Write a sequence for this structure.
């Protein structure tokens, strides 16, 4: 051992170093650093430590000195070193951000990292780091639709009022139809999920017909009234209204929330409504089907039962939908609306102002 070096390991540090050197999950660099210190504490010379650990003389001396100055913790943490590549200047990042916000040249729809790297003379990874730092994702696009209904604010407050504070002695139903549900049968059986591989499904299919689900979500208790029908004309809608009439106890007022589909405003439907005075229709604003609570039930049905389903016949599809309805009604959960209607109205107004300022 070279002069001027004294490795003194107390019992607590020795136990800790032994656990690091013998630990199965210890990183190898921590293992040989602990071995250097333990061998040094046992009085081994530098040449012997080099032979036993397979490390160079400068490496042994470095970690002996590190232990003397920083203890065991100094062996387990590497010092930060400056990058070999100098950091990009602020003006370079500003240029990339400015180009990203202006859009690509020609008829290209959006910037890619490779195209941006070629345009500014940087590497692809540098462009990606700048985008991540500034929260830019040119490859993504979110869709939206602003309602142009002149009575948007009044309708939103009316419907949200039914959700939050429903009238006494009344039932609030969110009604809609999910049309063109396809009974898809795959041409080949898929492979099941296994470790290291997701489940598989053939991209092609055989269509065995379609059905339409009429559904009414009870906002108060979460129950769902559902009927599968072949079409979604006004005749089928009236039949579904008759099913609701038979299901809701007598003496209860029925407030129905539904969208502006032409079937819902058919003259025969309006005449049916006039013959049933306890029913009141509340139409959602145009292009605002998201305010209809039953859409959440349809999304759950699609995700859990239809999207990956394999149906050999239309009857099998309708039976699967009916079983899902029965399961949902076994443990229903009341619908809870949490969004402030004033915030919704303000957001839509800001959206219109942004569109007007652009166009």
């Amino acid at each position: 051992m070279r002069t001027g070096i004294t490795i003194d390991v107390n019992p607590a540090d020795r136990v800790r170093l032994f656990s690091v050197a013998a630990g199965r999950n210890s990183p190898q660099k921590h293992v040989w650093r602990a071995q250097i210190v333990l061998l040094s504490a046992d009085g081994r010379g530098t040449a012997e430590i080099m032979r036993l650990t397979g490390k160079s003389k400068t490496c042994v001396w470095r970690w002996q000195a590190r232990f003397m100055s920083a203890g065991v913790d100094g062996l387990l943490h590497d010092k930060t070193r400056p990058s070999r590549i100098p950091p990009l200047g602020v003006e370079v990042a500003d240029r990339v951000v400015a180009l990203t916000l202006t859009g690509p040249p020609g008829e290209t729809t959006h910037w890619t990292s490779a195209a941006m790297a070629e345009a500014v003379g940087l590497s692809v990874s540098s462009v990606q780091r700048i985008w991540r730092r500034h929260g830019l994702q040119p490859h993504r696009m979110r869709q939206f639709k602003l309602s142009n209904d002149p009575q948007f604010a009044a309708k939103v407050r009316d419907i949200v009022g039914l959700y939050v504070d429903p009238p006494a002695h009344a039932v609030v139903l969110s009604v809609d139809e999910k049309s063109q549900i396809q009974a898809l049968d795959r041409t080949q059986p898929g492979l099941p999920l296994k470790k290291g591989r997701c489940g598989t499904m053939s991209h092609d299919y055989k269509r065995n017909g379609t059905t339409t689900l009429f559904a009414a979500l009870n906002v108060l208790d979460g129950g769902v009234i559902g009927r599968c029908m072949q079409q979604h004309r006004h005749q089928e809608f009236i039949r579904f209204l008759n099913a609701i009439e038979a299901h809701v106890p007598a003496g209860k007022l029925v407030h129905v929330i539904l969208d502006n589909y032409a079937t819902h405003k058919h003259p025969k439907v309006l005449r049916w409504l006039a013959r049933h005075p306890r029913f009141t229709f509340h139409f959602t604003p145009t292009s605002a089907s998201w305010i209809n609570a039953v859409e959440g039930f349809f999304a759950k049905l699609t995700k859990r039962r239809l999207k990956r389903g394999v149906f050999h016949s239309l009857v099998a599809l309708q039976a699967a939908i009916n079983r899902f309805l029965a399961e949902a009604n076994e443990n229903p959960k009341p619908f809870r609306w949490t969004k402030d209607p004033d915030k919704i109205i303000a957001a839509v107004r800001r959206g219109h102002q942004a569109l007007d300022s652009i166009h």
Summary: The mean pLDDT is 91. The CA atoms of residues 227 and 239 lie 9 Å apart.
